[in-house]
Structure to design on (1178 residues):
């Protein structure tokens, strides 16, 4: 690995140069005059000049000379924003393409949990991410996925144990152990999960959390493990309980899960360093239209949060939480990641500097980040389906059946009990009542499992949708009204090496190839957005009523969030952490 | 070294037990009912029950059962206080004796800079401290001294280079690189000092600062190095400038240097995690009468600072700054270091628990911390003087002479130009104008240096005072009105293996033996206080007018704080970092 070619931190030569510039012995490389500096330490806006020395901020004060001088004429200078928790795979693009999308908005770094690519390709997937993000004008910090696989109730492409996690934690760009999602196991005192939290601490790194709806004694038990954060709060009550219990409260505004407005009253300066902003999962549409973590800053300001504090939640607070070296503030010795903002209310970034170099202006990159040519073979050709026929999708008739109810804009699902439509001793899709067939096919050539169930909410009237993005195991998930189209959709994705597809009456209406791990394509966000638009139009043509049908589909296999899910092993009752049959016996749930 | 016998952090077994207790599956070991919990995260006081599981806090909430239940009846429960920067050697006692002194006041940990013992005995001195503090019911965290010796203008007992510092930074209880005092060198871009700061960062540990009066471009240059803190601010202006520049502002209230009142307006919740409380140097008197870092909490509250915020500055903020594992708050997963407080205004601690065990009650230890029997030989017999006679103290006559002016309650000195009293071609002490003789004798058997100068401020009319505590090199410093008494004082200290002494007309009036490194005695604080009292009475008998003559004497050799100092090499002009002669030529300073 060439992971250390660019220092994560600064070199002695760089520091010496910055000290020389700050002391006035050498001219800096760049000088911002007449800036209004957002000071995240004193929560103030300071009028001053800011001197840059190479990648670093040399000093703030009465500096007058540098190789290049930019008079900001009273514009604001803000630290580059850092997203405290994202799964970059949800953007469907590589780190370079992600950076290209958010850099012009003033986002200069992310803390990635490469949970998806790790579930597909294990350590090789994480190393691919580290290599792909090496040398970008964009910080990609990594937390080591802690739940690969997420549960024993699914087949994943790889497993990450303590030994693999230990090896990855040696990397300087790895800053923690990612969200320990198996909260029931942690609360139950499972020693493997507790060991993962302790492992992070032994590196002076952070064990991150994920505890949706967990409260009372269960929350205390979860946190007694040492887990330090959570990004799953959806109400003020939940957020405040977690803050009080010592949680670093990550306020999330993803594409599907949007919690900023509900948690807004908690975002106040008195909570100081205890709140961070994160996006978790964002689709190309939202990244391009709304932005990345800058969305939270902008929205918070518009809803009345003090602008400097809003910026602090997406810069200093996150940097401090993870102890990101020299990031998150405008101060001597810090890396010169800066955004020139002309209007604080709309948080409109005019010009962006990454490590002292201009990288974007007027919403456009000044130079597209180089895509590194690294060996991608460990993450290619990952879709290996069992031999399928329509018979693979047969569900035996039953009078009452469990059905997953998808909820708009929520990752949560509900379990509903339905009377399924039957035909020749089998359950078939019921388009009238919107009980569609849902399948989850193991796609790593390991077990040939096919999980079968019903789902309510898509309202398809024809065809099928399928995806190799299927949290967290990323087996192939498909929803459809007939077995022929389901089969075609699955076979098409195998041919693509992964992706998303909409099928109708034996025809491919639209697809989005995702050849990297079945999760990611090596294309710009704009092209992914356009392809997704076509795909969603196709889904609408099939009758879909969900706002983001493919994201919703991708979460239907997520066996760690209540209530009912489908993995390749079958239906999972999440609260009970066990497989359940589709059939419900009379008088019992 | 047995440094790892007690885990710095928690073990898997301990965490499992705490999770079991928090979840309600097992009874805790201790339950506090009806507590008013100081919550440093939300800056609130929460009425609740707190369950302890062994060394850990299991949970806060509706817990009812434990092996032992204590009904606090509405008393406050505060996190144990942590002193963010102290030189334990200034207390003149061992870690066990220091702990015995401050534990009853609710102080449960300190971050030590063993700079003094390191200057005397190097790595062996630091290892002695780590061993002496092992297994105490008191946290002793260590920062690696960065300036041993402090300057090239003195002879120290040992040198610590990058290799030694690197080895010490491997220790889990070592949490940073201690105050980089050579600020002129840092500002000048000296690569060894910059490398020391970077070394801390490479361990994800903290490079600490010391920049008295440094401001403007010099301050920016100092901080461009990456240095993270400072505890030398004496005015609001200085403190605010440093806060704005990203400094973790340590507010200090030592025995001599007292900055809390001056910095009080900066101690406000809006500065959140950016302020910490420290004592730096405290004598036994002040530790016993006022306390350790609890003094700052108490005084801040009495001066109007929000009590929870005052506590936060001496707990969470310091723990977060150094990333002390699971310390500094009352929350699930944290170490159960707790103080029961009956009156928040006076911050009066009734009962103290360290790691879940009661250690003090009603200002008394319930059990005196065991003094470990470790091999102290590397720190014994450290005083090796050159062969001395009264001739060693002869200063050639000059018309105008530089004289150090000691300032009450300040580490700072001034340079004054005086007309010395002459006798037989030599300068002698002038008791009428209070220009006394000051000597600094190399005491490690290395160079036989004797530095000579004049000092104003002690006002002795007879005899001499001498000390083997002499910052930072800890050579022997003595002040006196005649050479015979100076000689006797020095010879007596050599006999004691180090210590403090007052001599009059050929008689020892009082002494304080400090056989450990010439800095420390293996006795309780109370006994040291009593001996010091006798010593100060003796100093008063000699005519001394300074409030803490031996502390002032010990700082007269500190060649890193302006303006004029005396080391074994001679007089040092600190701002110019060079040796100067006592003689001042006409028309020039």
């Amino acid at each position: 690995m060439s992971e250390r070619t660019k220092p994560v931190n600064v070199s002695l030569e760089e520091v010496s140069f910055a000290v020389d510039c700050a002391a006035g012995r050498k001219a800096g490389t760049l000088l911002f005059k007449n800036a209004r500096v957002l000071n995240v330490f004193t929560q103030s806006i300071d009028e001053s000049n800011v001197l840059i020395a190479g990648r670093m901020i040399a000093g703030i004060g009465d500096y007058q000379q540098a190789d290049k001088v930019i008079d900001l004429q009273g514009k604001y200078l803000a630290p580059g924003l850092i997203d405290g928790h994202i799964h970059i795979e949800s953007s469907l693009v590589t780190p370079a393409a992600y950076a290209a999308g958010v850099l012009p908005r003033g986002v200069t770094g992310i803390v990635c949990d490469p949970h998806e690519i790790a579930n597909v390709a294990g350590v090789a997937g994480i190393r691919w991410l580290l290599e792909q993000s090496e040398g970008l004008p964009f910080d990609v910090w990594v937390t080591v996925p802690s739940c690969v696989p997420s549960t024993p109730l699914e087949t994943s492409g790889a497993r990450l144990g303590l030994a693999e996690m230990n090896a990855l934690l040696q990397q300087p760009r790895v800053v923690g152990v990612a969200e320990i999602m198996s909260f029931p196991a942690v609360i139950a005192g499972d020693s493997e999960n507790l060991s993962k939290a302790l492992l992070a601490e032994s590196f002076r790194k952070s064990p991150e959390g994920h505890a949706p709806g967990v409260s009372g004694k269960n929350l205390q038990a979860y946190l007694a493990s040492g887990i330090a954060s959570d990004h799953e709060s959806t109400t003020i009550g939940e957020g405040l309980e977690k803050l009080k219990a010592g949680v670093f409260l990550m306020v999330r505004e993803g594409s599907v899960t949007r919690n900023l407005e509900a948690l807004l009253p908690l975002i106040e300066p008195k909570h100081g360093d205890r709140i961070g902003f994160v996006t978790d999962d964002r689709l190309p549409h939202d990244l391009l239209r709304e932005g990345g973590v800058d969305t939270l800053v902008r929205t918070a300001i518009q809803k009345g949060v003090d602008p400097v504090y809003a910026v602090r939640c997406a810069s200093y607070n996150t940097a401090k939480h993870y102890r990101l070296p020299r990031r998150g503030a405008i101060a001597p010795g810090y890396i010169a990641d800066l955004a020139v903002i002309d209007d604080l209310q709309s948080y409109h970034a005019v010009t962006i500097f990454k490590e002292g170099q201009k990288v974007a202006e007027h919403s456009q990159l000044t130079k597209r980040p180089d895509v590194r040519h690294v060996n991608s073979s460990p993450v290619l050709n990952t879709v290996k389906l069992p031999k399928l026929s329509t018979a693979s999708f047969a569900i035996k008739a039953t009078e009452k059946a469990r059905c997953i109810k998808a909820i708009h804009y929520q990752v949560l699902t509900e379990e509903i009990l339905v009377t399924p439509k039957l035909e020749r001793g089998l359950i078939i899709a019921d388009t009238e009542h919107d009980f569609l067939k849902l399948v989850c096919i193991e796609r790593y050539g390991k077990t040939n499992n096919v999980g079968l169930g019903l789902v309510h909410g898509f309202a398809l009237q024809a065809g099928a949708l399928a995806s190799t993005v299927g949290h967290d195991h990323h087996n192939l998930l498909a929803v459809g009204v007939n077995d022929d189209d389901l089969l075609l959709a699955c076979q098409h994705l195998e041919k693509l090496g992964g992706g998303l597809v909409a099928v109708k009456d034996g025809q491919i209406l639209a697809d989005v190839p995702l050849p990297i791990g079945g999760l990611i394509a090596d294309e710009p966000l704009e092209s992914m957005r356009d392809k997704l638009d076509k795909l969603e139009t196709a889904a609408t043509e099939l009758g879909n009523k969900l706002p983001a049908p493919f994201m919703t589909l991708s979460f239907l296999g997520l066996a760690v969030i209540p209530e009912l899910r489908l993995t390749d092993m079958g239906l999972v009752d999440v609260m009970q952490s066990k497989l359940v049959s589709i059939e419900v016996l009379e008088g019992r749930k």
In short: Chain A touches chain B through 74 residues (CB under 8 Å). Confidence is low (pLDDT under 50) at residues 1-6 of chain A.
